[in-house]
Amino acid sequence: MDAVDVAAVLTDGERIEKFGKTSFFPFDSENRKTLANANGCWPGDDRVFEAERVVVSAHKKALMDNFTGSVIGFHGQTLAHDPENGRTHQAGDGQEIADATGIATVWDFRTRDMELGGQGAPLAPFFHFALAKFLGEYSPVAFLNLGGIANVSWVDPAASAPESRGALFAFDTGPANSLLDALIQSKAGARCDDGGKISSSGKENRELLEKLLQAPYFAAKAPKSLDRAQFLYALAMLDHQSLEDSAATLAEFTARSVAEGFKLLPSLPSKTIVTGGGVKNLDVMRRLSAALPTELLDGSSVGLSPHALEAQAFAYLAVRVMRGLPISSPSTTGCSEPAIGARISYPSRRKLD
Questions:
Q1: 187 and 353 in contact (C-beta within 8 Å)?
Q2: Is residue 109 within 8 Å of 324, Cβ to Cβ?
Q3: 117: alpha, beta or left, given left = phi > 0 and alpha = psi -120 to 50?
């Protein structure tokens, strides 16, 4: 809920030929508040209506000023995700984007997967498969995304296609930035723990940490996915601790939950490439390096743009949708068969100059 990311990718939906420029358009404080107020809400709520206005307006401005491609992948803003009951909600209307830009827009990426019994997330793994090929990897590698929620994709680049048996295994491991950000925003009045300075000066509460790790989610089989609000109860458990110790406990919770998730992978990856905003938290990265039995690499060290990868992923997936190729599989979301399809909106009028 920080910004709109825009990224250009040259691809046929199978191979990545080239990455174009990336751009970042922060929401102002009032718009962030509007989005936060709608978090956890479903269509029909007035707060959702206001959030949709923010999302669509921000995306139209970002795209009209900075994009000249042949198709747009528009993910929208996730406000609520309830995979156990087969429903998810991303605010934003792709038809408005198509009309404003004059470019075909692919959106509502998660519904078809959920109709097939999938979790609707994570959806980046098919992109990660193409990334492993692009990077010239030849043995299993993992991509760890540290967004609000942490998710991991185990990739075997020797497979012929991402939907092939044994090519991918993916799931959400647990919270990444969401709990830490919520703690810092409520207790320190800042947006995040910049660089992990606060958590690195505290001491984790081992007793509370073990209680958090006993949550049923961590014992559940993968594929599995999380709503960003699912572990918010952790903040109440930490309420009587200092800010520094609370932050340290949550930073360690992220690292330990990722390490628990790695035990579910088909094999130990040769390396783990980390992306997402969490790479900026040096304390979390340090804790992950200590917790994981694999080489840990910041995505930028291998030539990637860690903060643009999610935007790049949906650009790539949009092309797959246009070509009728699947964007998820039983081993990435738990769907019954490879999921093909999302909504495609074509401009209903010419783009205004």
A1: no
A2: no
A3: left
